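User: I'm putting together notes for a lab meeting next week and I want to include a structural view of one of the chains we've been expressing. I don't have a solved structure, so I'd like a prediction I can at least talk through. The sequence is below, exactly as it appears in our construct file.
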Amino acid sequence: MSSSGKPVLSLVFEVGIPFLLRAITPLHPGSGARVSGYVDLPVQREAHTDLPVIYGSSLKGALRSWAIARKGLQKIDVEELFGPEPGAGDKGIGQAVFTDAKLLMIPVRSLKGIFGWITCPLILKRFEEDMKTVSGLAGTKIEVPDPPKVGDKEAVGTSKNGLRLRLKGSEVVILEDMVLNFKSGEIGPLKPLLNHQTEKLELEERVLVVSDDTFKRLLKRAMEVTPHIAINDETGTVSNLWFQENLPAETIMYSVAFTKKDLKSKLEKVLGDIVHVGGDITTGLGFAEVIRVG
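Assistant: Thanks for the context. Below is the predicted structure for the 294-residue chain, given as structure tokens.
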């Protein structure tokens, strides 16, 4: 809070637009040439949590390119939102600001129902804090409950959850090779997402909250690592082999876009439906659906 009693963000920005990014195809927000174990091209990750992330600068750059190529915005509108082209010198800054796109849910294989989304109290608490921060900007009101409590061998889901099955008289869920006791309960901070835009995602039927440690173990198995080769045109033989890490399709991340009131409609046009983030557009990677929160 500022000395005037207003949230600090309201003194800097007039509009806050929280939104989800649901991966339609695998995403590769590349971290550069850094090698991680046997993965030559890993995704961007937070240093303190090791959770996948899309840096705000990467997200803004990708959306800038998408706005020009697919959204039909005029150059003057693009530059007002995103700033001048790289290398254009000091010609002002863009009026749209994007937070890092943080991981909210990631899909994992389920013995029943094919796949389910998992999240954990740490992620939900951060989501809750971020949504409370933006709530109130330009009339945005988002009520966010606290995360549920969950034990190491438990998975919390709503009473509508379709991933649970009975095993030796108990209700369990089987994710990858892990058997977790199912506990019926609310999915906490995800409740604001249960609106008409997310009905087709079947969140109440597919989302499970697991412990932080269980989430960390399942996350390692959920990430895609794909081999790539380069063919020598003259000899027809493999000249290079590398492994690339991707966020799998159906991964759900979230971010917040801030701007001025008179630019809200233009920014909403950019965030209208489908966007492209990350690399490898020529191989079909990087397409995501935008879903508004609240």
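A couple of points you could mention at the meeting. Residues 56-69 form the longest helix (14 residues). The helical segments are 8-12, 56-69, 75-82, 121-134, 203-206, 212-222, 264-270.

User: Perfect, that's what I needed.
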